[in-house]
Amino acid sequence: MSRVYNFSAGPAVLPESVLKEAAAEMLDYRGTGMSVMEMSHRSKAYQAIIDEAEKDLRDLMNIPDNYKVLFLQGGASLEFYRIPLNFMRHKKAGYIITGQWAKKASKEAKFVGDMVVLASSEDKTFSYIPDCSDLPITDDMDYVYICQNNTIYGTKFPELPNTKGKDLIADQSSMFLSEPVDVTKYGMIYAGVQKNVGPAGVVIAIIREDLLPTEEESKNIPTMLNYKTHADNGSMFNTPNCYGIYICGKVFKWIKSMGGLEAMKKHNEEKAAILYNFLDNSKLFLGTVEKNSRSLMNVPFIVNPAVVTDPEKKAALEAEFIAQAKKAGLENIKGHRSVGGMRASIYNAMPIEGVKALVAFMEKFEKENL
Ligand SMILES: *Cc1c(COP(=O)(O)O)cnc(C)c1O
């Protein structure tokens, strides 16, 4: 068996120790004589799994008691609609458009009410985070929405926007648990777990209790789309993604064993610095993001068009790089189809050796091709 360095943006690399543990428990979960996949979600054994997962997440993120933790299904993309449906009480909200995921979320908001674009970085293909210190937020807006780390473009908010007292709702899919965040600064944080935390099919939502729909408001929200349904039933109104939550729980324990989110941040900063330092000094390769907006998790780069001026040659060289990288055990380095070039996603579970191997390969490729 040989494992590659997997730079996929998601579903993505998971800690090897977690996969090994899950493998060891596959046929007989701790003396129950069955796999977690075969277990009733109403069983004592499963209740313990989900309770422990929630407790570990609360510990890791220091989540206050007045926030609910929900394990949902439907992907981050379903939250794009569920958020306005639950929270647009005055039928108006502000969106900051920093990439495709924020744009997709803003599109769903229009099904519910008045979606106001507060700022956008589309003018420069989302290569920066706009100034969010004085946005045109009005009193009648229910919330301000951001995608805090932009998976495709490789940007992250250097600081949270000034929401002028409005509740902040953040899609943290591709940065969830990569560093400490102050939960009290948000009305809601959510993440599809397949980027940094677990297998596809689970969304984790952290919601301040007072934001949940009231009994009266719930009369107009379909049951499964109402966050209150899931909050009132401990994420077990219906069958949850049992196995996915079990793996997430193991990843939470792995992060704890690594020293928690402060340690995770340090580990991620160290990895990102190796790659960004190389890019900043490279002639052949160019990072595509403005320095103060750089993500720790997703690093897009291209062959520098000022050096390889023929667009066809540039594209061919990038294709060659991706093909050779794959042969060298560096997988899924191709950029998103909307940006082109390359992208290295270096989530929590990517070891520092993987980033070093990538940079060594880039150095070699540069020498051979410049
Ligand atoms: C991947 C991603 C999504 C979409 O997730 P799905 O679970 O596929 O719906 C949304 N937001 C961000 C930031 C993402 O990276």
Concise account of the structure shown:
By secondary structure, the protein is of the alpha/beta class.
Can you give a write-up of this model?
Helix 8 (260-281) runs parallel beside helix 10 (352-369). The protein folds into two domains: 16-257, Type I PLP-dependent aspartate aminotransferase-like (Major domain) (Aspartate Aminotransferase, domain 2), CATH 3.40.640.10; 260-369, Aspartate Aminotransferase, domain 1, CATH 3.90.1150.10. With 370 residues, it is an alpha/beta fold. The protein is built from ten helices and 14 strands. The protein is 36% helix and 16% strand. The protein has a seven-stranded mixed sheet. The model has no long low-confidence stretch (mean pLDDT 97). The structure holds pyridoxal-5'-phosphate. Residues 10, 75-77, 101, 147, 151, 171, 173-174, 192, 195 line the site of pyridoxal-5'-phosphate. Pyridoxal-5'-phosphate (PLP) is lined by residues 10, 75-77, 101, 147, 151, 171, 173-174, 192, 195.
